[in-house]
Amino acid sequence: MKAIILASSLLVGTSAHALYSPNDAIKAALSEELTYVGSFTPNYSESQKYPTCVYRGKTVLIAVDYCVDKIVSAAGVVIHSKNDDLGRVAIYAESKPDTDVTKKKRKDYYDITWSVASRPSGSGFDFEMSASEYKKYAEKSAVALAATCRASLSARASCDPQFAQTGGDWLNDATEFWKEPGNDWYKLLKKLKTKAP
């Protein structure tokens, strides 16, 4: 997959900080004991009929869409670092209807919706926030114009201009992750599934 840098007239300036890579975020989430913070029903995504659960570890805050202990064909996971400089990683996977995505592998995902993106957590983020506070933050974040690095079928692997100087390592990591996320990602999905209320 070819890594490209996309220019945007709406986003200016540069960042001296590298963003959270998907592999680093997943390793942190797997290595920590996650405490259930609470849940809410999102109104900013197609998962409105399923709750979003929030979990907190020592260095990560995680929001998990489709947070139910039953067969769901989609998974949405956002991992925030306690380190503001690293920001957050959002990962979305989807398999065929009526299949359990947590039991599927990369080859079973729909390429068109499989994606990973990183950006600063942004205004309003508080590592100690409650689930209801996270919902308010997520609703604002969903419509905010924020500089991002992403890997998907449509965007390939790219970074907005702010990360032109620091996005190289992220692009390399995310490109390989998009092709094959590896066992840690599958382990994380199973770990989060077992924690669903």
Write the layout of secondary structure elements.
Layout: E1 3-5, H1 22-31, E2 35-40, E3 52-56, E4 60-65, E5 74-81, E6 88-94, E7 115-119, H2 131-143, E8 149-152, E9 156-159, H3 168-179, H4 183-195
Parallel strand pairs: 1-9
Antiparallel strand pairs: 2-3, 3-4, 4-5, 5-6, 6-7, 7-8, 8-9
What would your notes on this structure say?
- The protein has 197 residues and is an alpha+beta fold.
- It is built from four helices and nine strands; from the N terminus they run βαββββββαββαα.
- It has helices at residues 22-31, 131-143, 168-179, 183-195; strands at 3-5, 35-40, 52-56, 60-65, 74-81, 88-94, 115-119, 149-152, 156-159.
- A nine-stranded mixed beta sheet has the order 1-9-8-7-6-5-4-3-2, sandwiched between helices.
- α1 crosses α4 (183-195).
- It is globular and about 45 Å long.
